[in-house]
What we know:
Layout: H1 9-17, E1 24-29, E2 36-47, E3 51-61, H2 70-84, E4 89-92, H3 99-107, H4 113-116, H5 126-134
Parallel strand pairs: 3-4
Antiparallel strand pairs: 1-2, 2-3
Amino acid sequence: MPDGPQIDSKALEQDGFGVRPFFEAFVASEKDSNQIVGFALYFFTYSTWQGKSLYMEDIYVQPQHRRKGVGLSLFRSVSQAALTEDCVRLNFSVLNWNLPSIEFYKSLGALDLTEKEGWHCFRMNRCEMEQLAQRKV
Length: 137
């Protein structure tokens, strides 16, 4: 993505391995060099309709390592983590232009909720959250 990450490795280290970890992750590495070639980052959420859920925030495989089963292995590990925690669903988002990924997830049985049920993902950035927090009732 052109804007790239807006946090540094120190923030990732604190948020993932600090006193209160906000996420967990799996990494994939080359057998020979042990160099990391991909990762899947996730955290647990809760559905008031169904209970425990897992949200996969990101999955990435370096371009030269794609189409070798690395992404499938990472996604499978995330799915297993959800099942281990007795989650009822695994949620994630995909950018609408990323057609290869959309087709990949659909081939594994994932549902496009915007397409099927009309759910849209929304976001409030920090500025909007601050404005909302200060808004008078």
